[in-house]
Amino acid sequence: MAVSASLRRRLDWADTDAAGYWHHSTFWTYAEAGEAELMRALGLTELTFGFTPRRSVTAEFERPIYFDDEVTITCEVASVGRTSAVYRITLDVAAGRAATGEMTVVLIGDDGRPRPWPDEARALLTG
């Protein structure tokens, strides 16, 4: 079973667009909230916050989310490489799946260069 964490949010009015439903950029705000929840749950915030820039991001949108809809955000570790990790993000509302996406992050050191995941972190990320 993959390592994951979930949280719930309501779509704020400020995150809607002129059509009355969520703006696509909200996906990344939610994705990062999910990532933060996962890192907190694993006790890895000191290692990762400020040290895991994005290498790539993708998203697919399946249905709109409307103002005040409750959204379940799930961040799951899809894979862990030597210096990188892929997080799978899902957003669900009462009507079903709203969006899915992936973020590839790279662990860097103080010098800004990629560095290998410490063994303890790798163990936590891989379950």
Quick summary of this structure?
This protein is of the alpha+beta class. The chain contains three helices and five strands, in the order βααββββα.
Largest sheet: 5 strands, antiparallel
Q: In angstroms, what is the radius of gyration?
A: 15 Å
* Total strands: 5
Mean pLDDT across all amino acids? 96
Level of helix content? 10-25%
CATH level-four homologous superfamily name: Hotdog Thioesterase
Cα shape: elongated
Oligomer: single chain
Query: In CATH terms, what is the fold-level topology?
Result: Thiol Ester Dehydrase, Chain A
Query: For the terminal residues, how far apart are their CA atoms?
Result: 8 Å
Question: Helix-strand pattern, N to C?
Answer: EHHEEEEH
Strand order of the largest sheet: 1-3-4-5-2
Count of DSSP helices? Answer: 3
Overall CATH class: Alpha Beta
Please state the second-level CATH architecture.
Roll
